[in-house]
Amino acid sequence: MMRMRLDRTDMLCAGFLFFAGACLCAQVLWSGEWGPRPVIEDEFVYLFQAKTLAAGRLSYPSPPLPEFFEAAHILVVPRFAGKYLPGHPAVMAPFVAAGLPWLAPCFLLGAIAALLFLCARAAGLVRAAAALAAALLLGSADAFHWFASYLSQTSSTAWVAAGILALLAVQTRPSAVRVAVLAVCVAAAGLTRPFTGVALGIAALALIVRLRLPARTCIAAVPPLLCAALVAASVARATTGSWTTLPWMLYARQYTPFDRPGLGPAADVLPERPLPEHLRGLANALLDSRNRHTAAHLPREVLRRIDTAARLMPGWALFPFALLGIRLTPLWPAAAFACAFFVLQLSFFGGVTFYHLDLVPWLALSAATGVQLALRSAARLRGIRRIAAMSVVALALSWTAASMARQAWQLYRFRLPERGKSFARWEPVFHFLRQQRALVFIHYPREGWNGHYDLTYNEPDLARAELVRAIDLGARDAQLMQFFPDRPAYRFDPITLELTRLR
Asked: How far apart are CA 363 and CA 119, in angstroms?
């Protein structure tokens, strides 16, 4: 199968897919009762970091009496900052500065759809097959509603798609410029999600070795990688006070020492700071997941994660074609990335669906490639064998189309109204408190609180925040109130929705 040049028609098709993906993502974000606002705790943290970067800072000073402001994945000492790397927040920061943060995931999803089409065309697929690759992204509800979020996978998957296109470009005509672009994709992916960056780097290294590129060409990869290392070190220094201690490392040491790659039960290491009571249920669930992630459990976990990854496509019907698509020589580095990423991800106990989203570009491209290869092979047959082969492919495509229609119905009919439904019940109270420019103490119940519903997330700049949220610590609340003398103070019970004026 020959690789093809991208022409004007290809670019117009890519532009249409970008527009379609962005519009569909906006529809998903705006259709929920909570609107285009964060729902999962990670989303709150990425927006927190994006607001910090949009203000021209890497972190903020530790808040007064830090124990009042502890929230999931947020550092309160020695600085006020999120624990994640800056890649995804840096992408969102311009949109946050413009007051349109929801546009970031819309543009990213549109970019992924467009890049998949261009990758398919660069690999030699006909336009119909290239369009199928993009459709497999936009037509999978299991993948799509995760992309319509503020999760970092929206950025990392875009960098994977861009990296695959760069890998194809290097294969077509190696040059220092193209190697540098590939290194930028690797570096940006690493600053977003480390496993993704490492896996993409492995694929790039495998390609360089296979092509036997000269050192004078490969040296172009050094500046982007060094720049990424400097950025990571600078963020670490500004957040943790150490050039080598990344924020997530410090957060794990302070609160969740078990939250790191590895197999087997977590070491019995005490955290430096006790987690707030409302987050202990969440931490216990994560610890239980880590303790079950053993070598003996690994074979079963591998099968479960393969099933999870396959479900990112709209139905199993095209998954065999994804395996068939590995045969296409130009896409072998994408398959190398997928294998490396899957193996790296197995070292971490978290195996939920959205942790596998970075596999979507390879799955979609390989499935579309497999369909084209199967149709071409069937066309070479004669008689009843040709009819049978064509029927199998047609049945798989029909099954996939029906699955896409069913998933779209489920997404728009059932999933969208549920997005943020629990948060919506508290929003009228917080809207009133924002109007008052208040200080509110959240009175979490002692037991039974779902740690995924953390209501203590604040703006990074507490002095200018419309609302300051704090954990209710009883008699100690008066101490914190002294630091915010101009704000009315309230205590809020999220169970009974009772709001009590304290000052």
From this structure: 13
**Is 279 exposed, middle or buried, given 0-12, 13-18 or 19+ CB atoms closer than 10 A?**
buried
To which residue do tokens 């979490």 refer? 444
Pairing of strands 439-442, 468-471: parallel
How many CB atoms are closer than 10 A to CB 104?
25
158 burial level (CB within 10 Å; 0-12, 13-18, 19+): buried
Residue with tokens 């920061």: 93
The answer to whether 302 touches 346, Cβ cutoff 8 Å, is yes
What amino acid is encoded at 388 in this protein? A
Q: Which pair of tokens denotes residue 105?
A: 């995931």
Nearest to 156 by CA among 228, 108, 107, 207: 108
Q: Which helix (H) or strand (E) element contains residue 440?
A: strand 439-442
How far apart CA 63 and CA 143 sit, in angstroms, is: 37
pTM exceeds 0.90 for this model: yes
Q: What is the pLDDT of residues 421-465, one digit of tens each?
A: 677 789 899 999 999 999 999 999 988 888 888 999 999 999 999
Q: How far apart are CA 358 and CA 197, in angstroms?
A: 11
**Alpha-carbon span 342 to 10, nearest angstrom:** 31
Three-class SS of residue 74? strand
Q: Strand 439-442 and strand 74-75: pairing?
A: unpaired
Instruction: Give pLDDT, residue 486.
Output: 94
The angle formed by the CA atoms of residues 27, 311 and 387, to the nearest 5 degrees, is: 105
Helical residues (DSSP H) of 293-439, grouped into ranges: 298-310, 319-324, 332-346, 360-379, 383-410, 416-418, 421-424, 427-436
Distance (Å, rounded) from C-alpha 3 to C-alpha 423?
Answer: 49
